[in-house]
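In the design runs reported in the main text, the only information available to the sequence generator was the tokenized backbone. The following block is the verbatim input for one such run; it is reproduced so that readers can re-run the procedure and compare outputs position by position.
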């Protein structure tokens, strides 16, 4: 008890000390990487930004996280982060930057929390280096500069970690409850992803807490029960509410939060038994890639294709078009192929793995001499915590069937913690000449530099040879010199060690800046010279990578008529398909539709945006202005269409209905009026039936329908009925050009009107 009280007094005394001056520049670096130029992103991720716009309009929309102001369907995630974003937009006004701000601040907060967590046990220099490593991990600022959830999720889990560490130090049950309750809050941010840290929490509490086994079991059981109660609290309220009194639960197949949590956003992520679009056409990721390969061959023979079901072709194509990088050697969404070395493959390694070899050497050093039965030092206990966080998460990403690159931010805290703690530990072993342990520092520097050269090598055309050769040469030289000078103790050796750390952080720092230098992608954030494309792999052959991305896609009803080669979408360098995108035949890098389509090679993204020939590699015409619309594939509004719909609205609740959220989101953001995404996010949610739609039309809730032919999924019957019972609006009345109709992989994008008596 005396020991416990002395620890508490020591903590209070340390809190009264002056601020660490070395921490100030680290925080400023994090602030720059997370905040600079976020005000140029007007739409952010338009899917989520539209939800914030809707949530600002009523408490009903706010509570359920409704995608549209009409309360028709929710977004595909729990509401907590979007509650915070909505509050931010309420305070600062509705802007792209105001919905990004909470995540940017969370990114900075994670740096500070990691400093506090590591410093107390491993020393101030370990805390500083851990904080710097966290700030410079490329995927951290890349995600934090968007309105995606993951940055806030990591901050919340680190806050729970701080509570757990305090619970162990003070032996107070209240802090245990708070820590696990915070994981429950994190569950209401991104569902089962929050539970990835549970092994670390259980192992650490069992090993580090000096209480009886009976109390440990009782405390952990109670805390887990509280965590589960907090986790499902919102879900239980929603699922127990009558379906006609709330929005449909987006991206679920049964209108259930719990099904979404444990299915689409849960186990299916591991197994890969989920389509990218969330449709009912589920298939493993490996099979999806094989399907892409077979379709490439089939597309060369259109007569053979004619016997296939058109719905199957459209569903398969929709799935692949939502997955940049899918179907090539770098795996779906450019996340590599499952296996023990997946985190070292292209597309993932440059997001998170820059310091992994050094971390491995650090783990060896930190656990050197540890006996299974203990006793364990405080450093060993906390090292065990970070290891129990790192390994399960790394295993998940090594074998998972479906995830996005930016999910890798979950690995950033343990990697940064081990980088900081390990740098101090390995340096101490090096200086003490502790037999084989003294070789861990130069060995870690050498192997880490080698990996960084490997990571950068595919980007030689973008960054040049000099930085790659520089990191390699300096890494080898510094490692060798440290090995040679192992027996000497002087200031020069200290400088060499510091220089080695600078070299190992130099290229991660540059990669972390790429969303600022080249532009970011708020829909699929990643870091690297091609960060604006959201591809996350080696750069394309675009002449201006700073302007690559999906933002050139035109809004519903517009037709660019631009077939310039500068607007072709290029595949990641080194792709084995010769420039093909999934499911299409080669055409000099142009994206191809499924065979049988009427558009002769034209490309259309979900939502019906047309480019009249290729997917562009440049931003839309507005991208050169001070505001950047990077809300995904279709973050633009066709003003002529909007004017027509507004003028001809006769009191209908919905401005218009469309197949999916991609077409609807920009109009919700622009007008704040209800726009119905009939099939939810991807157009595949089984929300509507023909009878329900008839009832809505008779009530005067909706009469205009924009159909692009994409994202039908489970609503093909509804779309067929619309086409058979509607009047087609001449394109000259609503299209931005005189083009007869929008072209797409599945046919024309068309505006329909239905009025039932």
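Verbatim output:
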């Amino acid at each position: 008890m005396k020991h416990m009280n002395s620890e508490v007094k020591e903590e209070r005394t340390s809190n009264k000390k002056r601020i660490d001056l070395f921490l100030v520049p680290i925080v400023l670096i994090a602030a720059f990487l997370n905040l600079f130029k976020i005000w140029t992103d007007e739409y952010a991720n338009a899917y989520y930004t539209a939800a914030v716009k809707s949530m600002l309009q009523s408490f009903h929309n706010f509570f359920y996280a409704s995608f549209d102001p009409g309360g028709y369907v929710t977004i595909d995630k729990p509401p907590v982060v979007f509650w915070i974003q909505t509050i931010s937009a309420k305070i600062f006004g509705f802007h792209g930057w105001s919905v990004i701000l909470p995540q940017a601040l969370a990114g900075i907060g994670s740096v500070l929390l990691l400093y506090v967590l590591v410093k107390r046990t491993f020393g101030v220099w370990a805390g500083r280096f851990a904080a710097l490593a966290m700030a410079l991990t490329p995927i951290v600022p890349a995600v934090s500069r968007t309105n995606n959830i993951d940055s806030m999720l990591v901050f919340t889990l680190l806050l729970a970690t701080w509570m757990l560490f305090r619970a162990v130090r003070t032996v107070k049950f209240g802090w245990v409850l708070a820590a696990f309750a915070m994981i429950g809050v994190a569950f209401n941010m991104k569902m089962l992803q929050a539970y990835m840290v549970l092994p670390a929490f259980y192992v650490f509490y069992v090993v580090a807490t000096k209480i009886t086994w009976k109390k440990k079991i009782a405390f952990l059981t109670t805390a887990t029960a509280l965590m589960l109660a907090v986790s499902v609290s919102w879900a239980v309220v929603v699922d127990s509410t009558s379906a006609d009194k709330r929005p449909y639960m987006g991206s679920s197949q049964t209108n259930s939060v719990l099904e979404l949590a444990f299915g689409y956003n849960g186990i299916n992520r591991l197994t890969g038994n989920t389509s990218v679009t969330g449709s009912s056409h589920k298939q493993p990721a490996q099979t999806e890639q094989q399907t892409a390969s077979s379709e490439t061959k089939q597309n060369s023979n259109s007569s053979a294709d004619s016997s296939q079901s058109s719905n199957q072709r459209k569903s398969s194509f929709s799935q692949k078009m939502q997955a940049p990088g899918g179907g090539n050697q770098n795996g779906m969404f450019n996340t590599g192929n499952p296996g023990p070395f997946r985190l070292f493959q292209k597309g993932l390694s440059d997001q998170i793995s820059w310091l992994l070899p050094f971390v491995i050497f650090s783990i060896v050093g930190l656990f050197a001499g540890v006996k299974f039965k203990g006793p364990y030092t405080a450093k060993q206990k906390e090292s065990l915590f970070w290891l129990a966080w790192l390994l399960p998460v790394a295993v998940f990403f090594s074998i998972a069937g479906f995830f996005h690159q930016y999910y890798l931010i979950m690995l950033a805290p343990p990697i940064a913690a081990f980088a900081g703690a390990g740098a101090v530990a390995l340096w101490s072993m090096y200086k003490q000449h502790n037999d084989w342990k003294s070789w861990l520092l130069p060995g870690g520097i050498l192997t880490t530099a080698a990996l960084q050269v490997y990571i950068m090598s595919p980007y030689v055309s973008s960054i040049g040879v000099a930085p790659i050769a520089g990191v390699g040469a300096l890494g080898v030289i510094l490692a060798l010199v440290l090995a040679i000078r192992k027996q000497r103790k002087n200031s020069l050796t200290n400088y060499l060690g510091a220089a080695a750390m600078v070299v190992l952080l130099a290229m991660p720092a540059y990669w972390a800046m790429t969303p600022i230098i080249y532009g970011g992608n708020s829909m699929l954030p990643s870091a690297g010279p091609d960060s604006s494309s959201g591809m996350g792999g080696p750069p394309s052959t675009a002449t201006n990578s700073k302007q690559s991305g999906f933002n050139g896609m035109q809004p519903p009803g517009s037709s660019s008529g631009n077939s310039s080669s500068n607007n072709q979408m290029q595949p990641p360098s080194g792709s084995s398909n010769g420039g093909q995108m999934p499911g299409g035949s080669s055409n000099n890098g142009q994206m191809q539709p499924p065979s049988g389509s009427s558009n002769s090679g034209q490309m259309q993204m979900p939502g019906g945006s047309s480019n009249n020939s290729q997917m562009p590699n440049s931003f839309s015409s507005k991208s050169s202005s001070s505001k950047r619309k990077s809300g995904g594939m279709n973050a633009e509004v066709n003003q002529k269409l909007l004017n027509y719909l507004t003028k001809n609205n006769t009191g209908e609740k919905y401005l218009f209905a469309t197949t999916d959220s991609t077409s609807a989101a920009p109009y919700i953001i622009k007008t704040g009026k209800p726009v119905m995404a009939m099939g939810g996010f991807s157009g595949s949610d089984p929300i509507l039936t023909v009878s329900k739609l008839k009832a809505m039309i008779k009530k005067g809730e909706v009469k205009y329908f924009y159909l692009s032919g994409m994202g039908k999924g489970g609503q093909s019957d509804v779309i067929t009925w619309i086409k058979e019972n509607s009047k087609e609006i001449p394109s000259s009345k609503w299209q931005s050009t005189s083009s007869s109709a929008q072209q797409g992989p599945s046919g024309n994008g068309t505006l329909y009107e239905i009025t039932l008596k």
